[in-house]
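Hi R.,

As promised on Friday, here is the backbone we talked about, encoded as structure tokens. Could you run it through your design pipeline when you get a chance and send me back a sequence?
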């Protein structure tokens, strides 16, 4: 007889599968699939740390140094939008969470590369990452988060979310039609 409800087994299987993908992925140890972002929420007391990783093509529409002024502006706007972490990730209002720090990293230069080269410079697979730190006034009320990422980045099709909290861990797959993760520990 099964001791856990079937939905918990499904979530546990998704966690194991995402860990397996990470172990076998090239580069920085994360899966590299266009259209998909990976998020990890770590909840400890009143602090929440969120890590975001996605292929540049998913977030920008290109994955190498900007070749045109439009690409350069797109990169600048993406960085600005991602730096507004409380717009990209919104926790339920009862928890009273506020963004205290945001850090956005890309392996791309800001400026358009000069020259007549038809190839792009830089690594073959460029990733955009961000780390957000939130402080919650009422962490006991923290039970969900909604992703605003889907509105700002239309090429983003799915977000694979893992969360770790004192009571356990869990996972979810979010989409533009279902952008909310509920923190239900296993």
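Update: got your reply. Pasting your designed sequence below so it's all in one thread:
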């Amino acid at each position: 007889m099964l001791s856990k409800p079937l939905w918990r087994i499904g979530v546990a299987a998704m966690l194991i599968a995402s860990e397996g993908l990470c172990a076998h992925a090239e580069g920085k140890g994360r899966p590299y699939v266009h259209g998909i972002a990976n998020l990890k929420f770590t909840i400890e007391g009143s602090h929440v740390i969120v890590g975001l990783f996605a292929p540049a093509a998913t977030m920008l529409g290109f994955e190498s140094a900007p070749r045109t002024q439009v690409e350069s502006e797109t990169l600048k706007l993406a960085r600005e939008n991602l730096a507004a972490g409380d717009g990209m990730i919104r926790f339920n209002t009862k928890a009273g969470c506020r963004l205290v720090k945001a850090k956005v990293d890309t392996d791309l230069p800001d400026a358009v590369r000069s020259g007549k080269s038809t190839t792009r410079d830089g690594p073959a697979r460029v990733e955009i990452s961000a780390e957000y730190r939130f402080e919650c006034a009422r962490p006991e009320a923290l039970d969900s988060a909604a992703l605003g990422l889907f509105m700002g980045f239309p090429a983003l099709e799915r977000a694979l979310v893992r969360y770790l909290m004192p009571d356990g861990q869990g996972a979810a797959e979010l989409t533009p039609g279902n952008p909310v993760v509920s923190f239900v520990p296993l």
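One thing I noticed while checking it: The first strand starts at residue 36 and ends at 44.

Thanks again,
M.
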